[in-house]
Fold each of these.
Amino acid sequence: MNAPAPGLPGSGLPASRLPASRRSAAAAIRAGTGARIGLVAVALIASALFPLVFTNQLVLSMAFFTLIYIAAAVAWNLFSGYCGYISLGHAVFFGSGAYAAGIAARDLQITGTAEFALLPLAGAVAALIAIPFGLIALRVRRHTFVVITIAIFFIFQLMAFDLKTTGGTAGLYAPFLVWGPVVFNQRFYYMALLLAAATVLIGWLVRRSRFGLQLRAIRDDEDRAASLGVRAMPVKLTAFVISATLTGLAGGLWFFFVGQVVPDSGFNPIFDLTVALMAFLGGLATVAGPLLGALIIEPAQQDLTSQFSNGYLSQILLGALFLAVVLFLPRGLIPTVGGQIQVWLARREPHLPAAGSGSNEPAADQQAQASGAVAEGTSL
Amino acid sequence: MATELIRAVINGILGGGVYALMAVGLTLIFGVLDIINIAQGVMVVLGAYLSYALSVHLHIDLFVGLLITIPAMFLIGVTVQWAFIRPLRGSERTSMSLLASYAVAIVIEGFLYLAFGPNFVTLNASYVTQSVHLLGFYLPDIEIYGFAMAVALVAALYAILYRTRFGQSVRATMQDRTAAILVGIDVNRVSALTYGIGVAVTAAGGMIFGASGGGFNPNSGYDLISRLLALIILAGLGSIGGALVASVFMLTVESIVDIWQPTWSVAVFYAALVIVLMVKPTGLFGRQAVRAQ
């Protein structure tokens, strides 16, 4: 991580006490913040009006799945992106949320809209699973961590297949909702929007908090972070549990919408890969990256699946897209594009009022500041 | 009871030999390239399908077909390494390589679906259905041949690693990549060849896997890779001898558990993995500290 350039929001230095050159940089950043707030407002209004404009039911259900994936990808990034432990087992939480809601609805004989009271349970069960899962898996790092998450994922998929209470290959059915198709899709859309917005908000709050800084310190160098007083295990575990809870909620809501969960759909290895791909495509450890990734990938995938009768071609395309991202956009869209824009701006205005002498050095300083601003600017 | 137990142990050892072959390839790739090749599972399945295509369409015997499929898988491995693994650089290399090999697995799986469909197939030959009567047990011929070949190939790998100059470079690269470069080893070449060899053995492993199991389809790779990963982590990443021991041991344990609990025998793999790592995070034979970042 680059050190934040002085005068940036949150650095604690009032812009007026900075040299002139830095003040102008700070003003640029502040303008950027304003633009960002505007962008968020526009996005929120647009997404709130979306179901009123697009009344096609297929489009609405696609939008619902996209929102679920936004929540899942942002939640995944909140743990794996921020602290660098790549989890390929988040489907455990997605599936557990769905199954918890399904089992409770069946055993408590819950019908109709009362099912939504089970959503907190879906989140809570995912969180409860995440604690022992995390305590075991977070003891090891890198490859081994990834493999452990895969192994635990397969244990859960096996349990969904073979336990009596999960209904085996037939799976579980959600309570029937007596809503018309239009109302059904609209209401689920807004619930998913609420979940996605809340997840993004939590992701943003964590990113700018001390906790988020600790997570990123762990990602950069866990041993050094620990020696500087970061209590690595509790920090990692907290992020893991928060991420799991949000993923479990997404799983519960997805289950109510789809109406049925089977082991292969609840505990789906492609889910693990897809959320990771979304985060990587948008930009790991950024707030908006996974959101952008989900917005690109999920509609594309839904569209491909509806166009080709067999899903294999879309599977090949997903894999090919993944390879393209890994090879050509290893930093993700937002950091790459953000970096390009900053470089372009810095080239266009090479003579910002420089503090002190007229030597060439301040220009280099500007460049460095610009790149510092890139690093910080990409945080949203 | 006792006969069932002995039978389970024999099955475990025979199956373990084949798994050892595939696991050694995986752990070798890890040791040299510092990546986990998630695609190994689907490459085994690809190897099995290559044998299947040769035997069904060209009527080539399964073992003779290996003369074609092993070089073919070697070339596929070298190509994949060249195209998708070699370009990865930087601090995110670990996670990127995992994702890249996972993506390769998805693409190969998709192509296998397109070419062969989702139905389960099995490899057929006279020795697949025949069995020998030995010490009161019926042992399928294919498992005995397969075990013999796996032992031979593992021995050949050992010979290459410990008796040739190339093997010396491979071991040097595994120990310390930077130092290997400094003494003049072409680590790029070593990496490409190692990846190729690690993938090439899946052709043999896949043929036996496809002939001795209850059939396979393009999706079989996931189950396989999760077992292989469990094995090499259990053994300690990069430990070749450990992979051999762990494969035979775990397959034996699995087939013993299978006597009482057929549905849960697979879970033994993962449960053993979780327990071992809680006690010894480096794995059973791991010299390399996997905890070190």
Amino acid sequence: MWLYEKRLEYPVRVSKLDPQMAKYLYTQFGGPNGELGAAVRYLSQRYTMPTGRGKGVLTDIGTEELAHWEMIATMIFKLTQSATIAQIEASDYGGHYAIWDSGIFPSDSNGVPFTTAYINTMGDPVADLHEDMAAEQKARATYENLIKLTDDVDLQDGLKFLREREVVHFQRFGETLDYIQGYMDSKKNF
Amino acid sequence: MAKQNVSQLQTVQELGFALVEMNLYLDTHPDDANALAVFNDLATRYATARSNYEAQFGPLIDYGTSGPTSSWAWIQEPWPWQV
């Protein structure tokens, strides 16, 4: 069962309209290393994770990723919602606008629609957790690129928060992998 | 949004985020008694901060989790992406 808390996990601020940057941010809204993919991956993997710890970690990190997905949408919203047609045409956002108007559609930064082909659920916890650790590194690297693509210090603050969360998630998945490998070894020894 | 609203929300946000962090840490360190004590202290303070915020601005969590409400403030703007 999911509940929704009517606040952002961390504040999102932008100092100016920037449809160009919004286009780049879409990769974390609906792209291969983005928050929606992370949420769907972890929340799907959790069903077949052994141990309460495994189920807890996958559920709790997956849920936090939805909060991050919301932050990315908020960034895109603030960067575009009051943009004029002239501002949109002056950036690369025109293609997105032509298809989805001011709608915030889960695609990557090139307009490619989100797909669960970006994720995997093996039911094999060692495989799944290795994928999760890789995913967190890819997300971390992507945030570093996005931070470089903007000079808006306010926007960067939110992106730096999201980058740091990836580092923490990587740590937690590593700990979970160690624990579950130990658990599986101990079951074999019986 | 009113200035007072933003700073009261900030307290809820800060405590709420600290709780997310402690929750994830305890998921992989469930026997860490110090961490549990920190979590419990934060949870108590968060409950107070949330209750203070909600008394003025309405429920923060849906489906009645925030308790009874005198009017259906839940749908009122601003929503989080408008703040």
